[in-house]
């Protein structure tokens, strides 16, 4: 078997093993991070809604359109 | 045994449908988290490293990637893996040095054309946006065809009408949840798709290995029929539709892939969505693993299909397969799904197909969002003045629908000649050749000017000459030795020269605006 063939077979094995490691390492942590991200977005969205409500109370209807 | 025989049954269809239905529900649910344009386009820049890595993998590990990589594995065997090496090394370089991506994230822009305005002028931004969308939609043009070719080959559907209806239905589904939820929806579905597809890929790899056997793989690797040396100019595969690689192709792919790793808009939009420039750099370093796997594993499936049909359990189908290629009934893209349809059992085949459809959708949704965001932010807004956040979101949604219709028409109409990856590299060059000098010079070369940026962006149009029809014309009328690769390199050279000459001859009068090179 040529050196090229040995190199490619090694690369295939390395890719598969590294991919398993990535799935295990990233999977659980990513789900937790998604929850945190959604909480931040919800908080930002609520804050924007509250700010818009306050602006309406102080300056009347939106005339930007 | 027939070529179209498959283990795909009603049960597998039900599994796929359940998966698709749940994607619609996620799109509806994610809409509640969208408060402003930043939430819609870059998820409010809240992504941390693991989530960003999972969604970047979900986006870049698309069905199209699986299809073109397996096609390369089928036609070029082990030698096709040179692409995985180029991509892995490119990511390592970017991840270790932070070249381009660190400064780009630090500039706080939402899109790459927005950087053009920050550094050059609003005119450069509009031209850059138009070039990006044109190249991007052309590049995406065959995604639908690849997706439907996978589904028809794996499910055994042979009617061409089914192919068109499947393409239309898949596109409508992606449009639905992308229009509703924007980047928030894309991030959630990408994470699910990362997990489903990741497990699916490992399962398929095990089945492929068990089908051809470790002995069969090693025997083939040692045989003279295996294409193992990518610098060799002859491909020993036993059918005609198997292109060779060679030094020119390796050089061209190195340039295209390295540029795409840094500046391909869908990947760049993930760079711009992360929390900090440091996270952006980390994202590239850690992406080395999934990007290596996204090429290497499907290439192995394509190689497995070759061994199966020409030397293994499916060798009775070798002649029908060759005939199907010659008559155009199947392209070499279909070899991998035809192979999987025979070796993976019912039920599991449905889960694997759902994973592949997931991969199809995860690429489509990100790309649609990316191009439509550019249309809104970088073409419509600079041309038609200030727009409210809500109006921008609605323009983005309309742009998603318009691009979707264009994709459907192009996918049904254009006939692919040669490998799918070659088409994608050539259409991508129209954008990549221009963006490379404009961004790199903008970040690292103080004299880079607006005139140079215009010339560099327009120089990318030379990339069109790499498509099959212009190359045939050039070979007949200019020189027989001209290949698509020469035209790709010419496009990069013309763009770089445009930036250099334009900047030196026509410098900006008062120096660059806000984002000076340092």
Rounded radius of gyration of chain B (Å): 22 Å
The residue fraction in helices of chain A comes out at over 70%
Query: How many alpha or pi helices of chain B?
Result: 22
Number of DSSP helices of chain A? 1
Structural class of chain A: mainly alpha
Helix content of chain B: over 70%
Measured by DSSP, the beta-strand proportion of chain B falls in under 5%
* Uncertain ranges of chain A: 59-65
Distance between the termini of chain A: 72 Å
Classify the fold: give the CATH topology of chain B. Answer: Sodium/glucose cotransporter
Main beta-sheet strand count, sense and barrel state of chain A: none
What is the mean pLDDT of chain B? 85
CATH architecture of chain B: Up-down Bundle
Description:
- The complex is a heterodimer of chains A (65) and B (518).
- Chain A has 65 residues and is mainly alpha-helical.
- Chain A has one helix spanning 3-59.
- Chain A is rod-shaped and about 75 Å long.
- Chain B is mainly alpha-helical.
- In chain B, helix 7 runs antiparallel to helix 8.
- The A-B interface holds A 1-2, 4-5, 8-9, 11-12, 14-16, 18-23, 26-27, 29-34, 36-38, 40-42, 44-45, 48-49, 64-65 and B 32-36, 39, 43-44, 46-48, 50-51, 53-54, 57, 78-79, 81, 84-85, 184, 187-188, 191, 194-195, 198-199, 201-202, 205, 217-218, 221-222, 226, 228-229, 286, 289-290, 292-293, 296-297, 300, 388.
Comma- or semicolon-separated keywords:
heterodimer, A: 65 residues, mainly alpha, 0% strand, rod-shaped, disordered C terminus, B: 518 residues, Sodium/glucose cotransporter, 74% helix, globular
């Amino acid at each position: 078997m040529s050196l090229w063939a040995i190199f490619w077979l090694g690369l295939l094995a390395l890719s598969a093993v590294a991919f398993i490691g990535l799935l295990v390492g990233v999977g659980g942590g990513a789900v937790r991070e998604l929850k945190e991200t959604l909480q931040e977005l919800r908080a930002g969205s609520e804050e924007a809604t509250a700010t818009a409500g306050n602006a309406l109370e102080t300056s009347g209807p939106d005339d930007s359109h | 045994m027939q070529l179209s025989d498959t283990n795909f049954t009603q049960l597998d269809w039900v599994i796929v449908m359940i998966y698709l239905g749940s994607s619609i529900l996620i799109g509806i649910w994610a809409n509640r988290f969208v408060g402003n344009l930043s939430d819609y386009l870059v998820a409010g820049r809240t992504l941390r490293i693991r989530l960003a890595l999972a969604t970047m993998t979900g986006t870049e590990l698309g069905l199209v990637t699986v299809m073109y990589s397996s096609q390369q594995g089928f036609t070029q065997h082990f030698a096709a893996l040179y692409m995985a090496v180029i991509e892995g090394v490119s990511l390592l370089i970017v991840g270790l040095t932070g070249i381009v991506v660190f400064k780009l994230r630090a500039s706080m822009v939402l899109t790459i054309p927005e950087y053009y305005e920050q550094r050059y002028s609003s005119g450069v931004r509009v031209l850059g946006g138009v070039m990006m969308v044109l190249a991007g939609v052309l590049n995406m043009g065959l995604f639908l065809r690849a997706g439907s070719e996978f589904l028809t080959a794996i499910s055994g559907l042979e009617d061409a009408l089914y192919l068109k209806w499947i393409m239309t239905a898949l596109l409508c589904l992606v449009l639905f949840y992308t229009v509703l939820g924007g980047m928030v929806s894309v991030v959630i579905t990408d994470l699910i798709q990362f997990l489903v597809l990741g497990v699916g890929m490992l399962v398929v790899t095990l089945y492929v290995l068990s089908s051809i056997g470790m002995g069969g793989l090693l025997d083939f690797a040692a045989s003279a029929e295996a294409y193992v040396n990518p610098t060799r100019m002859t491909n020993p595969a036993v059918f005609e539709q198997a292109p060779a690689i060679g030094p020119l192709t390796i050089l061209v792919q190195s340039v295209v892939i390295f540029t795409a790793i840094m500046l391909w808009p869908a990947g760049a939009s993930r760079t711009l969505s992360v929390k900090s420039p440091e996270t952006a750099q980390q994202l590239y370093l850690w992406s080395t693993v999934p990007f290596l796997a996204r090429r290497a594993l499907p290439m192995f499936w394509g190689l497995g299909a070759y061994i199966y049909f020409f030397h293994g359990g499916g060798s009775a189908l070798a002649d029908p397969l060759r005939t199907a290629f010659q008559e155009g009934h199947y392209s070499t893209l279909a070899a991998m799904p035809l192979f999987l349809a025979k070796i993976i059992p019912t039920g599991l085949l449905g889960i694997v197909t759902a994973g592949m459809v997931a991969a199809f959708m995860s690429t489509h949704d990100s790309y649609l969002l990316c191009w439509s965001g550019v249309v809104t932010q970088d073409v419509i807004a600079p041309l038609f003045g200030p727009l409210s956040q809500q109006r921008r979101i609605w323009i983005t949604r309309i742009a998603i629908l318009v691009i979707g219709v264009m994709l459907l028409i192009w996918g049904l109409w254009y006939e692919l000649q040669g490998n799918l990856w070659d088409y994608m590299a050539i259409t991508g060059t129209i954008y990549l050749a221009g963006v490379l000098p404009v961004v790199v010079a903008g970040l690292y070369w103080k004299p880079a000017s607006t005139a140079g940026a215009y010339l560099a962006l327009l120089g990318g149009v030379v990339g069109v000459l790499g498509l099959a029809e212009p190359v045939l014309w050039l070979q007949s009328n200019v020189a027989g030795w001209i290949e698509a690769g020469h035209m790709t390199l010419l496009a990069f050279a013309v763009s770089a020269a445009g930036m250099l000459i334009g900047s030196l001859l026509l410098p900006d009068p008062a120096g660059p605006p806000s984002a000076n090179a340092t």
